[in-house]
Amino acid sequence: MTTPSDFEKIASACIQHYESALKKKGKPHEKEWTLLSAIILWHNEENFTIASMATGTKCLGEVELNDKGNLIHDSHAEVLSRRAFLRYLYDEIERINDGGISKYIDFKSGKFRLKDNTKVIMFCSRTPCGDASIIPKQEEEPEAKRPKLDIHRTGAKCVPGEPMDERASGMGYHVTCSLRTKPGRGHPTRSLSCSDKIAKWCLIGLQGAIMMHFFDLPLYIHAIVLGNCPFNQECAERALFKRFDGKIPNLGKVYNKIEPIIYKTNTQFNHQQMNNRTVACGAAIIWWKSCKDQQVCVNGLKQGVSKKAKDSPKSRCSVCKLELFSTAQRLISKLKLKIESNEILKTYESYKQASVEYQRVWTLLREDALKNWPRTDRKLNSFS
Ligand SMILES: [Zn+2]
């Protein structure tokens, strides 16, 4: 059982961690704002840990992507904290394999899993971008003195195939329930909004295809804890799971759609968007519990990388696809994991496809619930 006071405790622990454990590099300047997100492993109020944390507001445009796997395409805090969480999991897997003990992860009959009493909790300083952010606001119309309904607007555009925004006045401006790409200026992006990505994690787990080579069960989010921000319970539930009601087929024995608890706390993140903070911070901080030092990512690479060095290994953040993939490959071989595949296992894509049950469920979900989810260009995943 987790209670509202647990969630308040988690939110203040996250803010405190950001303020005291993370260094200044990568944090917003006076006029800038950012988003903060973290993943917490929880036993009880005395016993929990912040496994990963990230800030970030940016993502790359489609024209900026490449097929090397070295760039972080999506640097919203929620997405980076998940990637840093994967890094934390790989570190724990290796520690257990080397004879160490993990407080939150077990190793049983050749596979890893969360300990029975361990819950995964996600903290976000603000309502995730996209559908969850389309919420009614009530304003007094000064002359008529009656409430006029309007909504908080988002710059997140509906993806092709989904119902499109009507852009009518007030409540009619946006449609709800559509998959959307990330809001923001700059080159058009293919990255989906955080509402959509979190919704996907509620259906198929946080761990992704490749981590499923190590775990016997997917890792689902038990609760999403939000900082103080514009929020509407109904809209958040709609965006993160209710919009797929009636569209989820039987996923089988391993995967089970989870409806996380969504709880808004009164804890304020002082670097969030507000009157005096109007510019989105371009840098993103990436931290996980076993990292040596926080990393700062700008435009998909480590901060401070010169143009000449942009393809060199030291310019990569540890949570880009290529770095996570090479860790996975190294551990698959160190742990002597057997992966069955019809294809030759070499590329990132081939290791993803070899996660057979995960791919089966993902295909099922794309038949109806997520049918307009943009297909990743396989060429972008052809690196090895
Ligand atoms: Zn976002």
Uncertain residue ranges: none
Main β sheet profile: 8 strands, mixed
| Number of DSSP E strands | 16
Number of helices in the DSSP assignment: 8
Rg of Cα set: 21 Å
How many separate structural domains?
Answer: 1
Across the major sheet, the strand order is 12-11-8-2-3-14-15-16
State the main characteristics:
384 residues, alpha+beta, two-stranded parallel sheet, 8 helices, 24% helix, 19% strand, globular, binds zinc ion, A_deamin, metal ion binding, tRNA-specific adenosine deaminase 1
Short note summarizing the structure:
By secondary structure, the chain is an alpha+beta fold. It is 24% helix and 19% strand. It has one domain.
